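User: I'll paste a sequence; please echo it back and then give the predicted structure.

Assistant: Echoing your sequence first, then the prediction.
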Amino acid sequence: MNEKICIVYTHHKLGDLIWQLPYIKAISEHHTQSVDLILREKTQAKNILKDVTHINFISYNNFRKGIFYWIDVFKLIKIYLKNKYSHVYILDKVNKPAIAAKLSRIKNIIGPGIGNQKKWLTINNVLNDADKNLNYSEQSQKILKLNNIKLNNLYPELEINLDPIKDQHQDILPKGKKIAFGIDSFEDYKMWFEENFVELADLLYQKNLFDYIYLICGPEKSNLAQRIISLSDKKYFIDCSNKDLTGIITALKHSDFFVGNNSGPLNLASALGVKSFGLIANDAISELKFSKIEFITPEDYKDNTWIRDRNNMKTLKTKKVFDEIIERISNES
């Protein structure tokens, strides 16, 4: 029987999906074939993963709750049966894709098996309940190890061909050196303050490190970009809040480096191979250890910090961020 592989991941955040890229690739390499994915539409995966050679096809399912639960289960069953998958890998503990696979009589259903999910899997080597305290990357690593799947690279890497999309975004491609600031986050408490970004821009400009700065944020946080622009008397900011993900990718790939909050664009920039500085004060850098992100933290920062008060981001001083960026850039030159 020919194998056909499907991988399901149900989280909606872009950053969370990026963290799973090494494990998706490892499963593909294990089976020596490209794989299909089922993901949430909010990830915009069809935009960011379209050039990844080991991904064959992407289907969207929104993994809703309440009255929509079984509607989404039947949607999954329809996808499974249409594509005649031999294997379904589930990279989180959600029951829905496992139930649908079982009802579709798929012979190989592999997942973490935390909680009730284990009842729907076809394997016995599952994570234990204590493993729910592992972060998502560590859980996926353990799933692979339990199933003898070799992981060759821990770090997310993303292939993007800019040629088909850059013509759509010529309005953000002026001549000159460019850097990017990631100014928003899904969780507000992770956001550095707009005043700090303005101060940092002034200091970096004095060092002649850029001609323009991309302000990266979602349309729902466009007020942050407008506030930064209004606080500054400089004309070097480019507001990208109205850009879709292809525009954000275009901006990032044209940036010498990225500085930003712990959010999807930070993870995206790092996966794209852009030098990325993460501004961390209220959450744990250990959560991001499987990346090439360079962290900048306050003087008295302790790892595994979890503070839900945005005001604590003020403990990360602009001068410290500037000094560390300059030092690390200088060490590379």
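The mean pLDDT is 95. Residues 167-332 form a domain with the Rossmann fold fold (CATH 3.40.50.2000).
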